[in-house]
Every structure is written in C-alpha cells, then in structure tokens.
Amino acid sequence: MAVGIFDSGLGGLTVLEAARKRLPDVPFVYFGDSAHAPYGVRDADDIYDLTTRAVERLFDAGCDLVILACNTASAAALRRMQESWVPREKRVLGVFVPLIEALTERQWGDNSPPREVAVKHVALFATPATVASRAFQRELAFRAIGVDVEAQACGGVVDAIEEGDMILAEALVRSHVDALRRKMPSPQAAVLGCTHYPLLQDVFQEALGAQVNVYSQANIVAESLADYLERHPGMIGPGTAEAYLTTGDPARVSNRATQFLRREIRFTAA
C-alpha cells in the first residue's frame, strides 16, 4: 500500500514529512536523484529522461501512485509523461495544481471557467527550468484571470541546500527577493515553487515582509494527496515497506537528510 514520492534531491522530504503526518498509515517510498541534482539547470529532454527512470524505479518498489515532489520535473516532464508514458493502471501527479488551487481558492476538480480572484500580484520563486517552462502561469490561467505573475529564477539556492551551506542559501534567497522586488515592488502573495524552499520559508517571509502571504507546498500537497486517496483508494500500491532510495552516496545523503529533518534517515542505493 505504498505511495512514491520523487525529487531530484532532498527538497521533496518536506512533502514527505507533511504526507507522513497527514497519512500515518500509508508507507511511503522516497526516491532522491541526488547524483543528478539539481534539475533546475537541465534541459527538458534530460529532465524527462531522468524523471521517467526514477518513477519506473518507484513503480518497481510497489508504488502505483507517484507524486513528483519536484517542481522542475512537474513543469518540464509531467504533462509529457501523462500523455504518452504512464501505464494505464498507474498515476503520476505533480505539485503545481494543489498549490494553484489553494492560491485561487478552488476545490479539487473544479473545472469551471477561469474567474477573478482576490490575489492580483503574485511573486513566483523557482528554479531556472521551472521559470523557463511557464508551467505555473499556464496552470494558473486555466483557473484565474487578471493575475500578474512575476517569476524570479533562484539560481544557486538548491545547490547550496544540497551542499548543506544554509548561510549561502539564506544570502541567495535575500538577493533573489531583492531582485524580484525591483520588478514587482508590492506582491500580495509569494509562491515557493520548489520543494527545497520550505526549508527557508522563514527567510523568504522575513525578506518579503509580513504583509505578503507566502504559499509553501508541503502541507498543501499532503492535504491534496489525502483527498485524492480518499476518492481513489485503489491507487495505494502493493508495497508495504517504507524506504528511502538515492542515486547519490547513501551515507552522505543520509547525513544531509538527518540534518534537514532532525530525525535519523537512512537512504539505500537505488
């Protein structure tokens, strides 16, 4: 009855932790492609190939449903995967749609025409590949009209987090917020469009100011997953064991993950 969670590195652990708290009876299999992180500087074909390879491994681990807890993969690969690669009896879901539903105050599956929403000025912080894909803007346009989105590519932040250099990561966040504010001085909301970024949510909030509503994905995606499984209980796969898989060095990745989550995590080679 396992569900798979995939990320290019460690950022998806923020989603995993929220999902474990929301769904304590569901075993999760986590796959971090740390050997190839970060995805945010790769081209779309490369991201697609790496993502399908990782998701196939999660299918083999007994997961019929896989969450792409990687915004770059969700932006650059998910639609192509759903249209031509995912087997009929499997499901692969991304992290953009639950976030946009929360931003636009829509219920899951609300397919009514796009409408005016309260938030008019949105700052998007994401990897270069996610920004270049314009996937967030595309999904938002299906649900809302009249929303101005200013995207800021946050180069270097994921690398710094993966290396455990949080001082550098915090400095980069402040620099990217300053750059965003030069383009959009007064955003009403900010979207953290990378699952690594919740580790620095307080830094984003401080740099943006208390008046800006910062949307982070972990709890939103966990709640959306719980709703999905309630409506599709058959999508909980046959796997029964929780596992943490990595393409990187298991000892090094385990140490980083333990530091991030402040509980012992043991990765094994994928």
Describe what you observe in this structure.
The chain has 270 residues and is an alpha/beta fold. It folds into two domains: 2-96 and 218-269, Rossmann fold (3-Layer(aba) Sandwich), CATH 3.40.50; 104-216, 3-Layer(aba) Sandwich (Rossmann fold), CATH 3.40.50.1860. The protein is built from twelve helices and twelve strands. The strands form three sheets. A six-stranded parallel β-sheet has the order 4-3-1-2-11-12, with helices on both faces. Helix 1 links the parallel strand 1 (2-7) and strand 2 (28-32). The two termini are 20 Å apart. The relative contact order is 0.20. The mean pLDDT is 93.
List descriptors.
270 residues; alpha/beta; 2 domains; four-stranded parallel β-sheet
Low-confidence stretches: none
Number of domains: 2
Approximate shape: globular
Structural class: alpha/beta
Helix percent reads 40-55%
The separation of the N and C termini measures: 20 Å
Rg value: 17 Å
Largest sheet properties: 6 strands, parallel
Q: How much of the polypeptide forms β-strand, as a percent range?
A: 15-25%
Name of the CATH architecture of the largest domain: 3-Layer(aba) Sandwich
Strand order in the largest sheet: 4-3-1-2-11-12
CATH class category of the largest domain: Alpha Beta
Q: Could you tell me the mean pLDDT?
A: 93
Overall number of strands: 12
Query: What is the N-to-C succession of helices and strands?
Result: EHEHEHHEHEEHHEEHHEHEHEHE
| CATH fold naming of the largest domain | Rossmann fold
Count of helical stretches: 12
